[in-house]
Sequence to fold (768 residues):
Amino acid sequence: MVSKPPAGDPVQDAPQVAPPQHAAAGLSAVAHTLRIAQAQMGVARTARTLLKVNQKDGFDCPGCAWPEGDKRHVAEFCENGAKAVAEEATLRRVTPEFFAAHPVAELANRSGYWLGQQGRITQPMYLPEGAERYEPVTWERAFAIIAEELTALSSPDEALFYTSGRTSNEAAFLLQLFAREFGTNNLPDCSNMCHESSGSALNETIGIGKGSVSLEDLHQADLIVVAGQNPGTNHPRMLSALEKAKAAGAKIISVNPLPEAGLEKFKNPQTATGMLRGAALNDLFLQIRIGGDQALFRLLNKLVLETDGAVDTVFVREHTHGYEEFAAAARAADWDETLAATGLSRTEIERALEMVLASKRTIVCWAMGLTQHKHSVPTIREVVNFLLLRGNIGRPGAGVCPVRGHSNVQGDRTMGIFERPAPAFLDALDKEFGIVSPRHHGFDVVRSIQALRDGQAKVFFAMGGNFVGATPDTEVTEAAMRRARLTVHVSTKLNRSHVVTGTRALILPTLGRTDKDVRASASGGKGTVRFVTVEDSMGLVHTSRGNLPPASPHLLSEPAIVARMARAVLGAGSATPWEEFEEDYATIRDRIARVVPGFEDFNARLAADPGGFALPHAPRDERRFPTATGKANFTAAPVEYPKVPEGRLLLQTLRSHDQYNTTIYGLDDRYRGIKGGRRVVLVHPEDAAALGLADGAYTDLVSEWTDGSERRAPGFRVVHYPTARGCAAAYYPETNVLVPLESTADISNTPASKSVIVRLVPSAAATG
Ligand SMILES: Nc1nc2c(c(=O)[nH]1)N[C@H]1C(S)=C(S)[C@@H](COP(=O)(O)OP(=O)(O)OC[C@H]3O[C@@H](n4cnc5c(=O)[nH]c(N)nc54)[C@H](O)[C@@H]3O)O[C@H]1N2
Ligand SMILES: Nc1nc2c(c(=O)[nH]1)N[C@H]1C(S)=C(S)[C@@H](COP(=O)(O)OP(=O)(O)OC[C@H]3O[C@@H](n4cnc5c(=O)[nH]c(N)nc54)[C@H](O)[C@@H]3O)O[C@H]1N2
Ligand SMILES: [Mo]
Fold:
């Protein structure tokens, strides 16, 4: 049985609140999964689909980028992976009749949840200048429109090519090749809003912007620090790895303003005993203030330096640079300032130090809680200092572990989706294709919005994602997007970006991970099912092959869309064999093998083992650090932390349990005890009392920015919640309207969406 999408909208947002749960997963998770999956796909398709997730002959889960491991369970997926699959494999359809019935202006008043729930888009759609509705268009005409607008630009740099992290290696490689052949490095991607701060910090300090640990390392660690990450919701399979590490004797410290379920207690749904009993994964919970992490790690570093024999002097001498300067800065760290920045007690920090000193193999894992602040890059560099001090990089059971978001966000970068490509990469690309790539840098996400706003960019093309939904400063961004001449979205599902358009707009529907991508046989036979490849958070490359009949016969694969667009735009002037690439993805992989280091004999290695291979990582494999100094670099940035004026709170914008970024699966955040609504703001009871805010009161969130400007998000229900003092939390994307476009991390330019100073004012829009 497949349920209908929600009929009414705006969706009734009436949150019900119960105490937060301590345990993650378990039987209730399995029941919840099956309910959502069967509503979208029906029973048979649910079974057929879920059994193929993350199997060697199946498709890569479109959820998170956590690796699969070598021994796979029959059901190698988690509750939230299953929701991601159900969302894509849904039987609901958005047809040309749908667009005829709903003018764009009407769709622009619908919630993101409602739009997403309408189903898979079945045909290319075109919104001509001045038209009220999208109309069906042929693929040929769609590509001609793109060519018309792109060739009319006065410079290739007036075009923007955005990528979200679900795109396969093959499609990503073609897109960056096309952009560069066309003449621009304007390749912003979701990474700019996600782990850019990690990449910036790691490139500089260890010489490669990727994590250095494997699953095996996690299983062997003595100590795993999980900072600024909510794996119970966003990387549920990571909990199994932590459970295994713990069984082997590891200790776990979590650093978070919120007590997140899963770390507190985890009931492994893949083992019978785990399902029933569950165990606490956390050995120590440091309930830190938002933005206090750099101060915490700096003080821990000072304490390590002051402990006899704690520093790995051999490693420091042989493999690092900048130790003296760093040590001087760390010795100056101040207890009082650290306690103020972190909100932690002296005893808690001393307890953490004991665990740090007792560990010979330490891993630090992190996600958005560390990357989306003004001082994120120095914060992550301080984490690197912390690991370098005791030689915790490049040995088993130790290292850096930035846990990636989108399932192929890391691979897209490896394939060259980057606005600031390395000269060596461009040299290799140019040599292989006989082109001349531009050497000047392109626009990242924030600069792309500024360019649209200022009239410097006129065509916006997105390979997936929901640009206006995911980016900050919603009103500014939407106004900027409306100034474009043409907006184009390659998409599976309807979202906000399709209804906030340029003068003309196109929606190009594509195959998702679960869809079968069949290459027709020349002899009229059954044809072969094609596969693509992805790279997970730990640098493992493997195949992904869909097994479901596509959502519609009119869909094209992502590589086919790029190849046809390139032919339409570049015409006879291009010597690149775009037709061959569209026909046979193996020929794309042959080129990747010659351009991207680590992919030598790409096709042959996949044929030998579809389970994949690991990309080289010099610090991990040989303790070699390909930085400017040739060593791992200690750094000594001044300690920063957010200063919040009297009567204000520091707001972080985060994910609920029932969403995937801007895709809303449902209105519950089960582990946090919230049901039936998303407009909630979590506030510590004592802060709420000081501000005169009863639990259940309705408030507007007003953000205050340094230039004196204010932004307002109306009508949030106050929830008294055990967060760190002075901190608040609310869901994104509803709160993106509060994040000023100019509020970004130093160096990485990532929107500071976890550090928003807000005032809570009584709401006129109370809907309770
Ligand atoms: N089901 C599901 N899975 C997902 C996603 C999804 O939306 N849904 N999104 C995917 C993507 S793209 C990404 S990037 C990841 C995101 O994965 P996460 O980073 O886990 O996602 P967030 O919900 O943003 O959670 C941020 C966490 O950091 C904590 N935090 C906030 N500020 C601070 C701080 O200053 N210091 C510390 N120490 N902690 C802080 C928050 O309390 C929260 O626990 O998940 C991926 N996986
Ligand atoms: N305030 C605030 N803002 C944030 C964040 C935050 O924590 N707080 N997190 C940031 C982070 S970490 C990220 S990664 C970004 C996410 O930014 P995006 O990646 O741009 O956003 P998503 O919501 O993941 O995109 C969902 C859309 O992708 C399309 N899609 C899904 N699967 C496919 C596919 O296989 N192919 C194609 N072509 N399209 C597909 C569907 O149409 C769907 O509507 O948001 C960022 N924005
Ligand atoms: Mo992300």
